[in-house]
Amino acid sequence: MATSKEQNNGDLTRLRDAIREFTRERDWDQFHTPKNLAISVSIEAAELLEQFQWLQTGVTSELGERRLTDVRHEMADVLVYLIRLADKLDINLVASAWEKLELNRAKYPADKVKGDSRKYDEY
Amino acid sequence: MATSKEQNNGDLTRLRDAIREFTRERDWDQFHTPKNLAISVSIEAAELLEQFQWLQTGVTSELGERRLTDVRHEMADVLVYLIRLADKLDINLVASAWEKLELNRAKYPADKVKGDSRKYDEY
Amino acid sequence: MATSKEQNNGDLTRLRDAIREFTRERDWDQFHTPKNLAISVSIEAAELLEQFQWLQTGVTSELGERRLTDVRHEMADVLVYLIRLADKLDINLVASAWEKLELNRAKYPADKVKGDSRKYDEY
Amino acid sequence: MATSKEQNNGDLTRLRDAIREFTRERDWDQFHTPKNLAISVSIEAAELLEQFQWLQTGVTSELGERRLTDVRHEMADVLVYLIRLADKLDINLVASAWEKLELNRAKYPADKVKGDSRKYDEY
Fold first, then answer.
1. Which of these, A78, A116, C43, C55, has the minimum number of CB atoms within 10 Å of its CB?
2. Which of C41, C47, C48, C54 to mutate to test the interface with B (most CBs of B within 10 A)?
3. Nearest CA of chain C to the CA of A96: how many Å?
4. Span A72-97, pLDDT tens digits
5. pLDDT value at position D6?
6. B39 contacts on C by Cβ (under 8 Å)
7. pLDDT at residue A8 above 70?
8. B59: how many CB neighbours lie within 10 A of its CB?
């Protein structure tokens, strides 16, 4: 029987397993300290950002076909390292995102922040 | 009937919808250009990294309970912005991750890179 | 007669002028909004970090000759965009660094934080 | 007599010495591996970027007085860690920036790239 973790987290669980296998085959687990994986998330996030560096807004029409593919692959890299880090720290990513959304609902009440992008701590 | 996208991407689809609702209630869609969302992914990734800044490896015993919770929330922030960006660009995150894993399998053949962390372009 | 700004900031002033000229010759000033330059600082910082991604500590003996040159060039890229951003916002970088050092002296009193890397807000 | 390094690098040399002293007084040198300092540059760069996250262009009139001060301090933080990293790796930051500017002149010939922000590798 599937654990509750797997029931809640189907697609990411399958990805997690494939990433584990990919890592094991290359004997790369030795490099995957949580700190190194957090570094990797950050580096891949910057490579994603690089795609938008000189654009106005980065909507698909401005991105173009080729750059959209690059964006998709950079987003994949961020997600893969995020899943790998979650695996090493035994964190359920999807459950954490739901939890954080709840916290954000309390932190940024819709009626107070509507249309305003200032950060919570500026209120 | 569910679309193939939703069948492949159940948990993230539900999160995507909740994030859409969260954004709509606050009238924040106007700020969510793809470029601003890519910036946000990068900022949240750095906040995640900050948790590991002065640690040796960041394993759970070194992180401690309180910092592990912070890590979980920062990872959630990265995922939430990643999902939001994918939504704005009509990208299927999970499918992209599978595709990128395939590309990485070809780029880093297990028998060539075993136990070696050098980047592909150094070979 | 040199302005006080130039007297305090000789080397960076000369670099600033050369970067201005470099930008003007390429008609790139139109892309150099402060926001785009802050993005660029962040991207270059991540390229710098990438050089250390899988290393233990990154001391020169571990870096090696070739990678040390890459590190030097990535650091230069960060500095160049930082100088360019300071130019666009009319900020004196060197004076700001002295000011921040003073603030940090007050925030982290030597006798309280000695040998301890925890952030100020954890005290 | 001053060394050629100090002659070329007056302001940053004085800052470097003050940062050394600041670090020594707090016994923080033990945390300042090149890898940790590169991480710190990246984190501070993201905090700088955060100031511009939801702005249009970040020109001074859009930034406002208070945020401009924050920007100045975040830029200082990036510079301070950059100087500290250069110190640990015995790199002359100013000389490296001049060298990189020369390389960029060759990589992006003014007559070829005028008014065009595409990266070199797209040509």
1. A116
2. C54
3. 23
4. 999 999 999 999 999 999 999 999 99
5. 44
6. 39
7. no
8. 13
Q: What is the pTM of this model?
A: 0.92
Q: Is C81:C41 a contact under the CB 8 Å cutoff?
A: yes
Distance between CA atoms of C16 and C22, rounded to whole angstroms?
10
Q: CA-CA distance, B63 to D113, in Å (whole number)?
A: 48
Quote the Cα angle for A105-A109-A112, to 5°: 160
Structure tokens at D64: 């406002």
C83-99 burial, b at 16+ Cβ within 10 Å, e below that, comes to: bbbbbbbebbbbbbbbe
The string of pLDDT tens digits covering residues D8-48 is 448 899 999 999 999 999 999 999 999 999 999 999 999 99
Give the Cβ contact number of residue A84 at 10 Å. Answer: 24
**Interchain contact, D63 vs C89, CB within 8 Å:** yes
Residue C108 — left, alpha, or beta (φ > 0 → left; ψ -120 to 50 → alpha)?
beta
Q: Residue B70 corresponds to which amino acid?
A: D
- D50, with CB counted inside 10 A (0-12, 13-18, 19+), is buried
Taking a C-beta distance cutoff of 8 angstroms, is the pair A115, B32 a contact?
no
Nearest to C42 among B42, B54, B117 (CB): B42
Q: What is the 3-state secondary structure (H, E, C) of chain C?
A: CCCHHHHHCHHHHHHHHHHHHHHHHHCCHHHCCHHHHHHHHHHHHHHHHHCCCCCCCCCHHHHCHHHHHHHHHHHHHHHHHHHHHHHHCCCCHHHHHHHHHHHHHHHCCHHHHCCCCCCHHHC
Task: State how far residue B5 is from chain D, nearest Cα, in angstroms.
Answer: 31
Confidence of residue D122 (pLDDT cuts 50, 70, 90): low
Please report residues of A whose CB lies closer than 8 A to that of D39. 39
Complex ipTM value? 0.91
- The helix/strand/coil state of B68 is helix
Q: Is C92 on the interface with A (CB under 8 A)?
A: no
Interface check for C55 against chain A (CB to CB < 8 A): the answer is no
Residue stretches of chain C with pLDDT short of 50: 1-9
- Contact yes or no for A58 and B39 at CB 8 A: no
Contacts of D45 (CB under 8 A, 6+ apart): B46, C41, C42, C44, C45, C46, C78, D78
Q: Tokens 């001053």 label which residue? A: D2
Residues D112, C47: Cα–Cα separation, whole Å: 25
Cβ atoms A57, B30 nearer than 8 A: no
Q: Which of residues 23-42 of C touch D (CB under 8 A)?
A: 25-28, 30-31, 33-36, 38-39, 41-42
Amino acid letter for position B45: A
CA distance A121 to chain B (A): 16
